[in-house]
Write a structure and sequence with these properties.
The chain has one helix at residues 169-172, and strands spanning 2-4, 9-11, 14-18, 23-25, 28-29, 42-52, 55-66, 71-80, 83-94, 97-103, 105-108, 111-117, 138-143, 150-151, 177-186, 189-206, 212-230. The protein is mostly beta strands and 233 residues long.
Length: 233
């Protein structure tokens, strides 16, 4: 049975992570990691270490907060043997301006490393976190024997209906395309993992008549979906 969590999936009670750059299963998970919380405005930096599979990792967690307008950021840097393998930052410039930069994961040969919070492993139906880990803490995941998905070239489909400002979900669903896919074997089970989306649309928006729908916009993707098919059944 496959169970979808917020950012992961569960297969045979172990974590499965799938993205455009790698698919990994049953990772080794670090101890919990956390940022210092500034008691007032300013910057707090926390340096920590952990060991996984005989390797020492250094993690630098930086948190900044400033009032008027409220702005701040969280930044993580993870080093392996003195080399930065993950650098990611997310925050706000104020006035609702949200940003993020860098990457939460790194692929190295047959290995992939990922930084994520406990909430990413939450079951939306039960609100439980995988193995009762802390939803407010952060963790480092080491996947071995990863699979690299096959990326599909983007093909622009001609619009086969009258051009208008807003299209319904049913109208644009016919343009759904495969972004990437992979076939993997876990134990004796063969899985086909497929990521699809509808290219060149954004939304949903509300029209002047109150109808909700999607607008055409080049180089954007909407209605993303991840399907995992058990080929062994």
């Amino acid at each position: 049975m496959i169970k979808k969590l917020r950012d992961f999936c569960l297969f045979e009670d172990e974590l499965l992570y799938a993205c455009k750059d790698f698919i990994g299963y049953n990772p080794t998970i670090s101890k919990e990691l956390s940022f210092y919380d500034p008691t007032d405005t300013g910057t707090k930096v926390k340096v920590d270490e952990f060991e996984i599979n005989g390797n020492i990792f250094t993690v630098i967690l930086t948190k900044f907060f400033e009032r008027g307008p409220i702005r701040g950021y969280k930044k993580v840097e993870i080093l392996k043997k003195g080399v930065v393998i993950i650098r990611y930052e997310s925050g706000s410039h104020g006035h609702g301006s949200i940003y993020n930069s860098g990457n939460k994961y790194f692929v190295e040969n047959a290995n992939a490393y990922l930084f994520a919070d406990g909430n990413s492993m939450k079951d939306s139906e039960s609100n439980k976190i995988y193995k009762d880990l802390d939803s407010e803490k952060y963790y480092f995941f080491w996947f071995t024997d990863i699979t690299i998905p096959t990326k599909h070239e983007k093909v622009i489909s001609p619009i086969s209906f009258t051009k208008k400002k807003i299209y319904s979900k049913q109208e644009i669903e016919v343009f759904r395309k495969v972004e990437w896919d992979a076939k993997i074997q876990i134990n004796e089970t063969n899985l086909h993992i497929i990521k699809t989306s509808v290219p060149d649309f954004v939304g949903p928006y509300s029209g002047l008549d109150g109808a909700k729908g999607f607008k055409q916009l080049a180089n954007m993707n909407i209605l993303e979906k991840l399907d995992i098919i058990n080929l062994t059944l």
